């Protein structure tokens, strides 16, 4: 395998980000009348539903604040972030910093704050916007949201938990995975460094010692909350390769922060096992869900090819190559690069498709909806371009 032209690759990702994707969201998602953002956007950017999903609101505030902080002090980016931050502050939570799942266009709550990920992305949004705006108020809200997340960790859904207590107690991989990333995002505004450090180390333990199973060479989505053991049921057998790979690049960043080369090497090794398991040998791309025993997955969308899975996998692979020089990581990145640009990129309109069938054909024409917003595509383009610039 020849070493690619990293500069040419980086230029391609940057051109897509700044010339296509960001203008799409700035033009079509900003609700100038009610504040916040529309996320339900058709292929051409037209709005097909005005409900607002709180974690997507937080993600877009985070994205434009982060770009303002790290790339260029563009007033347009700060104004975009400000509109979303004010909307979240005013309507997003119940007064106790538990954030609703969804709101009407005007900000009236639709679905209760059962989903703790609304909290995590609000926390990240407030932290980045506080840095961009210099606002002590938003920094304080980020701290309060972080405290509330820690309070809810042991029982994330609280009174909205629908499973019967005690029969089959399980905990999910998603929360420690997200907190690993969130901790790095908010470290500048958390004065209690001991708390932050213990939070990071606990999340590392959860991901690599509890959810990671050596005989499987990957993390499972759910384990027993009693002893961390595998549970033989539908939920207990689920593997989500995309979650694995996204978590692994979060952990690589923690490895850099902690100057822990062994942690980075371990993450790279696991990433290869995960993508080999998840890769569709017949049609290419990565499966969305898998059953660890090879039984039929219960998620009917199990064989779909999703935008975020491939983008997060690509970040993990190019980051693994940049940090360790591992050529297998580079080979996988180039394979993912080819698949993403030939399948997810819309040849007619800006932004990328989100949902493909197993064969890699467009399944839904939307550019945003209840789950897809202004986050994985622009964050991925930004991250990958930056890493490629550092590659040799």
Question: Can you describe this structure?
Answer:
The protein is mainly alpha-helical. The chain folds into two domains: 122 residues, no CATH class; 223 residues, Glycosyltransferase. It is built from twelve helices and 13 strands. It has a three-stranded antiparallel sheet with strand order 3-4-5. A hairpin with a 5-residue loop joins strand 4 and strand 5. The longest helix has 23 residues. It is globular, with a radius of gyration of 20 Å.
Q: Into which percent range does the helicity of residues fall?
A: 40-55%
Write down the domain tally: 2
Strand order of the largest sheet: 3-4-5
How much strand? 5-15%
The average pLDDT score comes to: 97
**CATH fold-type name of the largest domain:** Glycosyltransferase
Shape: globular
Q: Kindly provide the radius of gyration, computed on alpha-carbon positions and rounded to a whole number of angstroms.
A: 20 Å
| CATH class descriptor name of the largest domain | Mainly Alpha
- Outline the low-pLDDT stretches: none
Q: In total, how many beta strands?
A: 13
CATH architecture of the largest domain: Alpha/alpha barrel
Chain oligomer state: single chain
First-to-last CA distance: 14 Å
Counted by DSSP, the helix tally is: 12
Q: H/E order of the elements?
A: HEEEHHEEHHEHHEEEEHHEEHHEH
> How would you sum up the major sheet?
3 strands, antiparallel
């Amino acid at each position: 395998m020849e070493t690619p032209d990293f500069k040419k690759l980086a230029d391609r990702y940057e051109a897509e980000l700044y010339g296509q994707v960001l203008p799409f969201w700035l033009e079509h998602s900003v609700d100038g009348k009610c504040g916040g953002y529309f996320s339900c956007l058709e292929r051409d950017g037209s709005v097909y539903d005005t409900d607002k999903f709180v974690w997507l609101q937080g993600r877009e505030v985070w994205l434009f604040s982060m770009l303002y902080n790290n790339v260029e002090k563009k007033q347009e980016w700060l104004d975009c972030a400000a509109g979303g931050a004010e909307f979240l502050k005013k309507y997003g939570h119940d007064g106790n910093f538990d954030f609703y799942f969804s709101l009407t266009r005007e900000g009236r709550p639709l679905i209760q704050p059962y989903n703790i990920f609304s909290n995590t992305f609000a926390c990240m949004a407030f932290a980045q916007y506080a840095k961009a705006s210099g606002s002590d108020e938003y920094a304080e809200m980020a701290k309060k949201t972080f405290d509330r997340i820690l309070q809810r960790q042991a029982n994330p859904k609280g009174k909205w938990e629908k499973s019967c207590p005690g029969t089959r107690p399980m905990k999910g991989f998603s929360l420690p995975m997200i907190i690993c990333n969130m901790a790095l995002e908010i470290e500048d505004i958390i004065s209690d460094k001991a708390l932050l450090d213990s939070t990071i180390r606990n999340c590392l333990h959860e991901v690599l010692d509890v959810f990671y199973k050596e005989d499987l060479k990957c993390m499972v989505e759910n384990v027993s909350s009693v002893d961390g053991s595998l549970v033989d049921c539908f939920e207990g057998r689920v593997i989500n390769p995309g979650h694995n790979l996204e978590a692994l690049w979060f952990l690589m960043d923690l490895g850099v922060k902690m100057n822990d080369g062994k942690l980075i090497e371990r993450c790279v090794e696991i990433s290869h096992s995960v993508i080999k398991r998840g890769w569709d040998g017949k049609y290419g791309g990565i499966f969305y869900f898998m059953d660890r025993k090879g039984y039929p997955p219960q998620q009917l969308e199990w064989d779909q090819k999703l935008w975020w899975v491939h983008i997060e996998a690509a970040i993990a692979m190019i980051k693994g190559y940049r940090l360790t020089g591992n050529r297998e990581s580079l080979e996988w990145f180039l394979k993912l690069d080819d698949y993403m640009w030939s399948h997810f990129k819309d040849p007619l309109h800006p932004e990328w498709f989100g949902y493909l069938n197993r064969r890699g054909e467009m399944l839904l024409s939307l550019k945003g909806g209840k789950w897809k917003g202004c986050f994985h595509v622009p964050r991925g383009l930004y991250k990958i371009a930056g890493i490629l610039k550092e590659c040799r």
